[in-house]
Amino acid sequence: MKITVIGCGAWGMAIASHLTKQGHSVTVWAHSEAEAERLTKEREMPNAFPGVRFPDGITFVNDRRAAADAGEDLLVFAVASPFTRSTAESFKEAIGTGKRITIVTKGIEEETLMTQADILEDVLPGNTIGVLSGPTHAEEVILGMPTTIVSASKSRQLAEFVQDVFISPKLRVYTSPDVLGVELGGSLKNVIALAAGMADGLGYGDNCKAALITRGIHEITKLAVRMGALPVTLQGLSGMGDLIVTCASMHSRNRRAGILIGQGKSMEEAMAEVGQVVEGVYSAKAAKALSQKYDTPLPIIEEVNRVLFEGESAEEAVRKLMMRDRKMESSFRPEDLPECWRTGSSR
Ligand SMILES: NC(=O)c1ccc[n+]([C@@H]2O[C@H](COP(=O)([O-])OP(=O)(O)OC[C@H]3O[C@@H](n4cnc5c(N)ncnc54)[C@H](O)[C@@H]3O)[C@@H](O)[C@H]2O)c1
Known about the structure:
The radius of gyration is 21 Å and the shape is globular. It has two domains: 2-139, NAD(P)-binding Rossmann-like Domain (Rossmann fold); 180-322, N-(1-d-carboxylethyl)-l-norvaline Dehydrogenase, domain 2 (Orthogonal Bundle), CATH 1.10.1040.10. The chain has 17 helices and eight strands. By secondary structure, it is an alpha/beta fold. An eight-stranded mixed β-sheet has the order 3-2-1-4-5-6-7-8, with helices on both faces. It has helices at residues 10-21, 33-42, 64-70, 84-95, 116-123, 138-141, 156-166, 179-201, 206-227, 231-234, 237-248, 253-262, 267-274, 279-293, 299-309, 314-322, 339-342, and strands at 2-6, 25-29, 59-61, 74-77, 100-103, 128-133, 147-153, 171-176. Bound molecules: nicotinamide-adenine-dinucleotide.
């Protein structure tokens, strides 16, 4: 297949390398001429992948027309989320209509509250759009470590096409029709990862981490289902799976930023030290706006917002979460409850 990856960050390059090893003809679009030239010459990204050389088969270009034409079978959008709309707009003419597109970027647009696939549907109408998301650190995929991912699209044909293109003994690809659920899981987990990092930075232990992961997926599921996603998606790879990997791994830039904030640094200082786009910071604001729009309280995400944007300390945020009103763990259906739990209160 002839495939173009639009974006040459860590994930774009891990995908391009994987697809080249699968025998596809792969072109990568870099957003600057200088970066396209550097990658063509040096074929490595030592900060992200020390000691890894990209396969010789990958072609790097900066020209949009050349990039779009080279991806006649599939275009993979892989720029960081703040650049998805501007990049798609800049490609509008070159892409035209009738193309297969999948997007691997995670995040919710702050101003519009759109997901990444929503943005592509908006900017590139007349194309078939899907998303590819899951617990997939680029640093492990590029080394061929066993990894799983979900190919979602309203078009079953596209979801299965992307599955066929990507699947290998190293990368197992599942399909799903629930684009919204897959995207919300992938975007909102970054906000919980910031919280998990803050807990680590404060020196708290595994109990606190387990609580944040479990109550975090509870929050994400509540909002996602209210917005129309299927609950089972949030229990899957792109939901719980991605949340676990992001909260536990040092590969996660959101968790690393959270650790610095937990240690007392400001959001700006933490972002500068991590040195890459910390997408959870953008998604935190968007998630808060969605919580208000859909009238769904998201206690952890609200506290993350207070720490990031209102100067609250991470320690105070944890204290407030621990001291919230007492409640049952889940919203049980009345028919599942014993009689004494169904009526009134024992207190
Ligand atoms: N890194 C991972 O392990 C991983 C895994 C799964 C999904 N993702 C998602 O993939 C997306 C990209 O992640 P990444 O790790 O490759 O990010 P990155 O920060 O390494 O790369 C971002 C890329 O965005 C593009 N970019 C930067 N500035 C731009 C501009 N002004 N205009 C247009 N494009 C510009 C460039 O191609 C740049 O390399 C993110 O949404 C991330 O959540 C990452």
